[in-house]
Amino acid sequence: MAQAPTINPLLTPYKMGNFNLCHRVVLAPLARMRFYGNIPQPHAILYYSQRTSKGGFLIAEATGVSDTALGYPNASGIWTKEQVEAWKPIVDAVHAKGGVFFCQLWHAGRVSNQDFQPNGQAPISSTDKPLTVEGLDGAHFTPPRRLTTDEIAQIANDFRIAAKNAIEAGFDGIEIHGAHGYLIDQFMKDGVNDRIDQCGGSLENRCRFALEVVEAVANEIGADKVGIRLSPFADYMESEDSNPKALGLYMAESLNKYGILYCHMVEPRMKTVGEKSESPHSLLPMRKAFRGTFLVAGGYEREDGNNAIAENHADLVVYGRLFLANPDLPKRFKLNAPLNKYNRETFYISDPVVGYTDYPFLEDNS
Ligand SMILES: Cc1cc2nc3c(=O)[nH]c(=O)nc-3n(C[C@H](O)[C@H](O)[C@H](O)COP(=O)(O)O)c2cc1C
User: Fold this and answer.
1) For each of the chain's 366 residues, which pLDDT tens digit applies?
2) Which of 94, 120, 166, 221 is the S-S candidate for 101 at Cβ 3.0 to 4.6 Å?
3) In a 3-state reduction of DSSP, which class is residue 39?
4) 3-class SS of residue 243
């Protein structure tokens, strides 16, 4: 039984640049590993459309920008014509229900394995330091090859082409995946980046690649269609910085120069992707520094999401696991209704239905 509705700042409208959003409950980018052969699949039409509401904002799963970008089986991609075509009916379904849909553009960098790389080559990174952790299901990571200075511009160009492809597929914009220990994060964090060229050393140098990607993508599709996700405080995939606050602030301020639509930051309490822990830090300084729309993510529930909006700590709140398990999450928040529990066991299985499109809607529970 739904409880009496209460005041819900999360359910108030918000104008994000040219997009008129009807509420502030955003679908987080969630890799689901159900894109066989890295081709978007028809079952994603139902998955994304289930999670669409009129004027809702959705961010698609991490989507590889090139054939060196992937780190997991059955991950999404958008560098071939076939992938672009396969995304189209998925994007159309979200638009048919009035959603605003951005594609998250991703390069895994060293969080990969030679089996996912063309010709079995080593994954590329800012460094040649290998990861010492294991991946999902004990997957091991191949020691990376350090990119040469000349090669770095080519990777930024891959992001540019992927952004163009995303617009061709019908997406309303793109989010650059600069979080969670993947390639862009591997450049930004001093715990990984050990370069001695113009992309290593000082904070400014370490952020150069991220900002080159921002610039390339914004020039291609327009800054009003570009967001970026950052997790300065996380140490996921052994990607840690000695001064995350300075890193977050430098990026927030630098992004202003490009006038991009939004900055999406992961809360300091999320050192990893899935575990909440106490943190003395906050995103408030970055929120204040960045002049566009500010999105926050990581461990949010209904009440603290409402508080974040009410206290003006964020414009939009991004929900991962709760949205994964509750396709009608905004409605449930509106009614203060009980939530389905998520099942970790089915997060990354390749089944086209189980743990994907079979979470019940509110009315199905009664
Ligand atoms: C199954 C799963 C897949 C994820 N895939 C991505 C991804 O593709 N890109 C990304 O930036 N974060 C990814 N994340 C992190 C989420 O976007 C989110 O930041 C995280 O789950 C914490 O938010 P939550 O507490 O609301 O779930 C993933 C998380 C989960 C559980």
Assistant:
1) 555 556 899 999 999 999 999 999 999 999 999 999 999 999 999 999 999 999 999 999 999 999 999 999 999 999 999 999 999 999 999 999 999 999 999 999 999 999 999 999 999 999 999 999 887 777 789 999 999 999 999 999 999 999 999 999 999 999 999 999 999 999 999 999 999 999 999 999 999 999 999 999 999 999 999 999 999 999 999 999 999 999 999 999 999 999 999 999 999 999 877 788 888 899 999 999 999 999 999 999 999 999 999 999 999 999 999 999 999 999 999 999 999 999 999 999 999 999 999 999 998 654
2) 94
3) coil
4) coil
Atom of ligand 1 nearest to the CA of 342: 31
Sign of CA dihedral 272, 276, 281, 285: positive
Best CA proximity match to 267, nearest among 289, 248, 254: 248
Instruction: Tell me, yes or no, if the pTM score tops 0.90.
Output: yes
Distance 213 CA to ligand 1 centre (A): 22
Q: Which distant-in-sequence residues (6+ apart) come within 8 Å of 303 by Cβ?
A: none
Q: Which helix (H) or strand (E) holds 166?
A: helix 149-169
Per the residue annotation, which of 14, 47, 48, 182 is the catalytic one? 182
Q: Please say whether the beta carbons of 181 and 237 come within 8 A.
A: yes
Q: Taking the alpha carbons of 241, 242, 243, 244 in that order, is the dihedral positive or negative?
A: positive
182 tagged catalytic: yes
User: Which sign, positive or negative, has the C-alpha torsion 108, 66, 27, 187?
Assistant: positive
Q: Which residue's CA is the nearest one to ligand 1's atom 18?
A: 320
Calpha distance 318→208 (Å, rounded):
27
d(CA 1, CA 149): 59
What residues does ligand 1 touch, defined as CB less than 6 Å away?
28-31, 61-62, 104, 177, 179-180, 229, 266, 270, 273-274, 297-300, 319-322, 347
Number of H helices, E strands in the chain: 12, 13
